[in-house]
Amino acid sequence: MYPVIRLARIALFSPKRPALGPEDTGTLDMIVWPWDCDVFIEMNNGRHLTLYDLGRFDYGARCGLMPLLKQKGWGLVVAGSTIRYRKRLLPFQRYTLHTRLIGRDDRWFYFVQKMTRGEDTCSSALIRTAVTQKGRILPTQEVAEALGYPDWRPDKPAWVEAWIGADDSRPWPPEE
Length: 176
Prior knowledge:
The protein is an alpha+beta fold.
């Protein structure tokens, strides 16, 4: 089940939190609820990705993107992801979800997200996203200009460029 109560909380409170710029990291303090867990009594791998969605929604609300989505009729899409799981998250443990916009190219925005408990990183994901309008992907420059950051285009780290290259080399549609 989608975490609609958490989403509603983000929709209500994130716009009231301090604004974020493109160089900032957004954080959410969270708790592992029993319904986040799988049969091994740890947070389900799919739930990690779902909660990373919420981190990006919080980021979008705090950087000014969400009002633009509503005003302009824009949408959001995830177009690729890779995730590493390293430490278990158990029921009722508290953790922090970090969301950082790491770069962009002409089509895609790249986010790095992680869940931490103290100094330990439990999981980390690289997410490729886009803003859409009427079924087409908007150029990131158009979105950056609308947000007031037309010149923000940092160099992506080498490992992100390597991931992009590796993903581009995969056959699509997949071969059987």
